[in-house]
């Protein structure tokens, strides 16, 4: 069993956000008065209440999938197929796997070691980054709204394949042996 | 409405996965649920700060500045700046999407925000250093980065072509 990832509850980037939030809140309070301050705070608290059940579900899905679907299984799926089918499998696997960097990159690394085609690995990482459902549902949707999120995902659908094709071309051009 | 539908879908997933885990062993299901709940508790401070910070920042940021840098008329320069900002912004999804939401509320163009989100998703330097380089072959990482460089621009171009519904 690989060591379990842990989310730390506070780090320096959170500190920066905390400072920015406090300063911005103070500016709003002083410049625009208590009513406006409370109105914004109220709508933010509403957004937070809306997000909480989704974030909790996202965390539970993340840990459960990680337990049920060990990285060896995923590696076998993607590593077994090169060619265009490899792209499609890598795409689907990255869509299904819940996203967090601690589970995704070890899988990608293991794929490379297992001899998977770099194009498929690039498709896998790119899909996870731009399409992964968990990040979209849990984080993007509440912040950006459903219209924007769905539109962005549709717009981004071709990106993993473009990246995968470019990666294959790059390996053919610069890789050892000159390719086929 | 749509929020409730998403909750139902997500919790349906949770229930299905928990049952699958419990069929293997009760301990496995328990472990998954407990670890997920702990992750959630640890995320709460970040979530609270991100949401509240985004709300106040959107109010405070000078709108003209955002519009002139990232507005719909900002063109290639706006896309490039959005891409660079996306790549260097530290932190997890709360930070990334809080900035995206703030920019959109303050008048940034949707393609520019898409370029920012795609760049943040693909390149976030902190994630690259902490998670990707240590576990992946260096050459593969650089190939991935190099072939991903056009993607924020490609996404923005597709977004402009398709048009926002």
Structure description:
The complex is a heterodimer of chains A (180) and B (165). Helix content of chain A is 81%, strand content 0%. Chain A is an all-alpha fold and 180 residues long. Chain A folds into two domains: 14-68; 69-175, no CATH class. In chain A, helix 2 (71-80) crosses helix 4 (101-113). The longest helix of chain A is centred in the N-terminal third of the chain and has 57 residues, at 12-68. Chain A is elongated and about 60 Å long. The mean pLDDT of chain A is 82. Chain B has 165 residues and is mainly alpha-helical. Chain B has two domains: 1-60; 63-165, no CATH class. In chain B, 85% of the residues lie in helices and 0% in strands. In chain B, helix 1 (2-24) packs antiparallel against helix 2 and helix 5 runs antiparallel to helix 6. The mean pLDDT of chain B is 88. The chains are: A mainly alpha (180), B mainly alpha (165). Chains A and B meet through helix 1, helix 4, helix 5, helix 6 and helix 7 of A and helix 1, helix 2, helix 5, helix 6 and helix 7 of B.
Number of domains of chain A: 2
Shape of chain A: elongated
Tell me the domain tally of chain B: 2
Mean pLDDT of chain B: 88
* Biggest chain-to-chain interface with counts: A-B, 87 and 85 residues
User: What structural class results from the helix and strand content of chain B?
Assistant: mainly alpha
Biggest β-sheet strands, sense, barrel of chain B: none
Task: Chart the SSEs and their pairings.
The complex is a heterodimer of chains A (about 180) and B (about 160).
Chain A: H1 12-68, H2 71-80, H3 83-96, H4 101-113, H5 118-130, H6 133-144, H7 146-156, H8 159-174
Helix pairs in contact in A: 1-6, 2-3, 2-4, 3-5, 4-5, 5-8, 6-7
Chain B: H1 2-24, H2 26-60, H3 63-70, H4 75-88, H5 93-105, H6 110-123, H7 125-135, H8 138-148, H9 151-162
Helix pairs in contact in B: 1-2, 2-5, 4-6, 5-6, 6-9
């Amino acid at each position: 069993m690989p060591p379990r990832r842990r989310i730390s509850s506070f780090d320096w980037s959170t500190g920066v956000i905390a400072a920015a939030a406090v300063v911005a809140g103070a500016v709003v309070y002083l410049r625009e008065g208590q009513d406006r301050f409370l109105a914004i705070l109220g709508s933010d608290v509403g957004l937070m209440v809306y997000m909480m059940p989704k974030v909790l579900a996202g965390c539970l899905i993340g840990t459960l999938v990680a337990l049920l679907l060990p990285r060896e299984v995923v590696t076998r799926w993607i590593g077994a197929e090169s060619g265009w089918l490899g792209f499609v499998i890598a795409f689907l696997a990255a869509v299904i796997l819940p996203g967090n960097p601690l589970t995704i990159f070890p899988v990608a690394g293991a794929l490379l070691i297992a001899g998977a085609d770099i194009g498929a690995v690039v498709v896998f990482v790119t899909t996870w980054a731009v399409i992964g459902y968990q990040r979209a549902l849990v984080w993007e949707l509440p912040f950006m709204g459903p219209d924007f999120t769905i539109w962005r995902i549709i717009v981004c659908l071709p990106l993993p394949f473009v990246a995968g094709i470019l990666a294959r071309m790059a390996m053919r051009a610069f890789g050892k042996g000159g390719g086929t | 409405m749509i929020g409730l539908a998403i909750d139902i879908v997500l919790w349906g997933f949770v229930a299905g996965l928990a049952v699958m885990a419990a069929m293997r062993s009760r301990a496995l299901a328990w472990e998954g649920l407990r670890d997920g709940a702990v992750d959630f508790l640890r995320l709460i401070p970040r979530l609270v700060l991100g949401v509240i910070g985004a709300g106040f920042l959107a109010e405070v940021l000078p709108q003209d500045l955002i519009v002139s840098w990232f507005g719909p008329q900002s063109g290639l320069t706006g896309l490039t700046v959005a891409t660079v900002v996306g790549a260097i912004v530290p932190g997890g999804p709360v930070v990334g999407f809080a900035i995206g939401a703030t920019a959109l509320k303050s008048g940034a163009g949707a393609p520019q925000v898409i370029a920012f989100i795609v760049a943040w998703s693909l390149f976030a330097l902190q994630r690259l250093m902490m998670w990707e380089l240590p576990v992946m072959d260096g050459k593969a990482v650089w190939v991935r980065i190099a072939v991903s460089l056009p993607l924020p621009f490609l996404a923005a171009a597709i977004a402009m072509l398709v048009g926002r519904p």
